[in-house]
Specification:
Structural class: mainly alpha
Strand content: under 5%
Number of strands: 0
Radius of gyration: 39 Å
Number of helices: 3
Distance between the termini: 89 Å
């Protein structure tokens, strides 16, 4: 992974976490119903801070989307490197195919040699023992 992509994804995570934290703080502080006897100044401040918190969280999530899109774009722009990797892998696969074919041929030769050796051993065992001259 490219270093730029790592930084973009890290920034995306931080921005997302910051947006989530802001929303949690807004909900904890101002998300519950306001008391009925709340002063008008406090109600205006609560509404202002709630809207400000939502705007900050929306900005953080927009930055998250932007950084994630940039990271995906940076990762996808390495097309030439991917083509090189495919070419290199194709070459390696062909070389491995040739090696496997050579091993298969060696196995066939060894198999034929073993068959011939076993036939020779069976013929030697099946033949009656040669009579030895008496002395």
């Amino acid at each position: 992974m490219q270093p730029l992509t790592q930084y973009l994804l890290t920034g995306s995570i931080v921005a997302s976490a910051l947006g989530g934290l802001v929303l949690c703080l807004v909900i904890i502080r101002y998300g519950f119903p306001a008391p009925e006897d709340e002063a008008p100044d406090e109600a205006q401040r609560r509404i202002f801070l709630t809207r400000l918190g939502h705007a900050v969280a929306a900005f953080c999530f927009a930055v998250t989307a932007l950084l994630t899109a940039a990271a995906l774009g940076a990762r996808g722009s390495g097309g030439a490197a991917a083509d090189t990797d495919v070419g290199r892998l194709t070459t390696e696969i062909r070389a491995l195919d040739e090696r496997v074919a050579a091993v298969e041929q060696a196995v066939v030769r060894v198999s034929h040699s073993l068959d011939a050796l076993l036939e020779h051993a069976e013929r030697a065992n099946a033949a009656p023992p040669a009579a030895t001259p008496a002395r």
